[in-house]
Design goal:
With 638 residues, this protein is of the alpha+beta class. The chain is built from 21 helices and 22 strands. The strands form 4 sheets. Strands 1, 2, 3, 4, 5, 6, 7, 8 and 9 form a 9-stranded mixed β-sheet that branches.
Length: 638
């Protein structure tokens, strides 16, 4: 205490807090945070479009995909000097937290950037940023590095009617490392969604590396987007036309397009002021309540009362694909990443508007309404049938730590889920080695025989009839479907430990599909990991190196001294590794390498799983044909 004085108090000024704690502002400094910088700049341009000041946005990726340029034809950021702060408005906005023109409603009736920190955060976390402003028939420019201006605003020259803002930035490798780049598919998907959400807006994407240029323009708005999603999902819509609501006579402004399909799950995509709210919020709660009440109101009016089945809200939403976009004057987002809308006053008007309109639509289209109810009843009966199967598995699940667990499971002695790990291992041979290599106190091993059932093409009942997958559910202890309870999960970490070859990758993909479709909460809560066993052992003198793949092997070899003659061994499978090698490389908590499985883009993930594992072979054929010219014959494992 004696040494703790005022001299130990640190005051972070300007944008220093952003560089000190970037995750507080962008979520993380990995792929999501890297892309979040681009979304912030794009959303500023979209705000100009939402308020009627722009109709075109362009996004160009640098040749190395490490930087980006965002161009709009809006009003252009003001460059005149602020009387109070004696700086140009441009410099204030890009170098000061909580500075901007969106706190009142004079310049922006609604917007996605209300915290006043987006542009300045991007600037703070960029090794370089250049702002080019076109307004009042003049071209202005200011250059920054790591949040600090390298000079004053310069007047470049006169322009002929051109207006708008152009921002070029390159995220700082000191913050994000040197390996991260922009994912072309993720960027295109996000930009296309913007063009659907704001009908009439033209969004242009250009890849400076490949020369690809795509123009997204969808005058049909979210109705057109819904049709695209239904087609993409590959499941037939129950109704010939979607339910559409466009309410702009009061706040919040509401746009909704939804339909019921034969898909086994719901897909609700929600947006607030053009920002995707992946974690939902009060607007999504209003939508869910409206769906439930509107359908039940229709059933009551029509005297539909199915016998022998209880319909739940989840049954009503099964198969629904919905796009809900609301515009709120003062949105309260959860954190700067804006993943959830928290305005409590939004839920009630959203629910009322949707419920009334949807119930009237169902009554006016009674044959469609009855077909939807028939689909809902079918879902309820299927749920109750699968619940019976799930309960059968649940009864086999351990009530205590050891009761009725799968016979092949070599369990750990710890009863604490936080300390316990489960390794799902490919094959009995590798499973035997893993059992000898493990830490018996905290690590459990469950060997799997062969390739498991493809959960993308199976019902919950079929999944639980599969011996290998049923064993996994029993071992985990948390149940599945409606019986799922994460508090009963017996292991805090579940590792998929497969051979580092194509068969191993296939089995890992099948297991990931199972977890994504049947136990998605385990992925979302960070319980699923991919173990990374090495493919190569490299002995160089007294040192031993482990390489995950050919690229890793080549990197290690390039770093060895020139006078060393390495001995390289390639493992054909986990069964070839002795227990000591498996422990050192894959099981030892201090030395192993592993990847936590996360869902970056929910819609893109869903589509990818469906394309790779679904019944329709056409997307896989297209993927193979697209990448076949790039494949190296020597690298194919056939």
């Amino acid at each position: 205490m004696a040494g703790y004085t005022s001299q130990e108090i640190t005051v972070l000024e300007g944008l220093e807090p952003v560089r000190q704690r970037p995750a507080m502002y962008i979520g993380d400094t990995a792929k999501n945070g890297y892309h979040h910088l681009l979304w912030e700049v794009v959303d500023n341009s979209v705000d100009e479009a939402i308020n009627g000041h722009a109709n075109t946005i362009e996004v160009h990726l640098d040749k190395d995909h490490r930087g980006a340029t965002v161009i709009d034809n809006g009003r252009g950021i003001p460059v005149d000097v602020h009387k109070k702060y004696k700086k140009s408005a441009l410099e204030l906005i890009l170098t000061t937290l909580h500075a901007g023109g969106k706190f009142g409603h004079k310049n922006y009736a609604v917007s996605g950037g209300l915290h006043g920190v987006g542009s300045s955060v991007v600037n703070a976390l960029s090794v370089e940023m250049t702002a080019d402003i076109f307004r009042d028939q003049q071209h202005y420019q200011q250059v920054y590095s790591r949040g600090k201006p390298k000079g004053k605003v310069k007047k470049i020259g006169a322009t002929r009617g051109k207006r708008g803002t152009t921002i070029h930035f390159r995220p700082d490798p000191e913050i994000f490392g040197k390996k991260l780049t922009y994912d072309v598919d993720v960027v295109k998907k996000r930009l296309e969604a913007k063009s659907y959400l704001h009908k009439g807006l033209k969004v242009v994407f250009k890849d400076e590396k490949s020369g690809e240029r795509i123009e997204f323009h969808h005058p049909g708005g979210i109705v057109e987007y819904l049709g695209h999603l239904v087609e993409e999902r590959g499941k037939r819509a129950i109704a010939p036309e979607a339910f559409v609501l466009d309410k702009d006579d009061d706040h919040p402004r509401i746009e909704l397009a939804l339909t019921w399909t034969e898909a086994p799950e719901e897909r609700l995509l929600t947006y607030a002021n053009g920002i995707p709210t992946g974690s939902g919020g009060t607007h999504e709660a209003g939508l869910k309540s409206a769906l439930n009440r509107a359908v039940r109101g229709f059933m009551k009016t029509k005297g539909i009362n199915p016998k022998g089945v209880t319909i739940s809200a989840e049954d009503i939403r099964e198969g629904v694909i919905a796009l809900l976009s609301v515009y709120v004057r003062d949105p309260q987002f959860q954190g700067q990443t804006k993943d959830r809308l928290n305005n409590p006053e939004v839920a009630s008007p959203v629910e009322t508007a949707i419920r009334n309109a949807l119930e009237h639509w169902l009554l006016d289209n009674s044959s469609v309404g009855e077909a939807i109810v028939a689909r809902i009843v079918t879902a309820a009966r299927a749920r109750e049938a699968s619940r019976a199967a799930i309960q059968q598995v649940k009864r086999k699940t351990a009530v205590s730590h050891r009761l009725n667990l799968p016979g092949k499971l070599a369990d750990c002695s710890s009863t604490s889920p936080e300390d316990s790990e489960l390794f799902l291992v490919e094959g009995d041979s590798a499973g035997g080695n893993a059992k000898r290599a493990r830490d018996r106190k905290t690590q459990a091993i469950l060997p799997l025989r062969g390739k498991v059932l493809n959960a993308e093409r199976a019902s919950a009942k079929q999944v639980l009839s599969n011996k290998e997958l049923s064993d996994i559910v029993s071992a985990l202890g948390c149940g599945m479907g409606k019986a799922f309870d994460v508090k009963k999960l017996r292991y805090g970490k579940i590792f998929l430990l497969m051979d580092a070859d194509s068969d191993g990758h296939h089995i890992a993909t099948l297991l990931l599909t199972f977890f994504y479709r049947m136990l998605p909460e385990l992925i979302r809560e960070g319980h699923i990991f991919l173990a990374l066993p090495p493919l190569f052992r490299i002995d160089a003198g007294k040192d031993t190196h482990w390489a995950l793949d050919e690229d890793d092997r080549d990197r290690i070899l390039a770093e060895l001294p020139g006078n060393v003659k390495p001995k390289i061994s390639r493992f054909k499978g986990l069964g070839e590794m002795n227990p000591d090698e498996l422990k050192e490389t894959t099981l030892d908590k201090k030395r192993r390498r592993a990847l936590r499985v996360v869902i970056d883009e929910e819609l893109l993930t869903d589509q990818t799983i469906n394309d790779l594992m679904g019944k329709d072979a056409a997307p896989r054929y297209e993927l193979i044909m697209e990448h076949a010219p790039k494949a190296e014959a020597e690298a194919l494992d056939v």
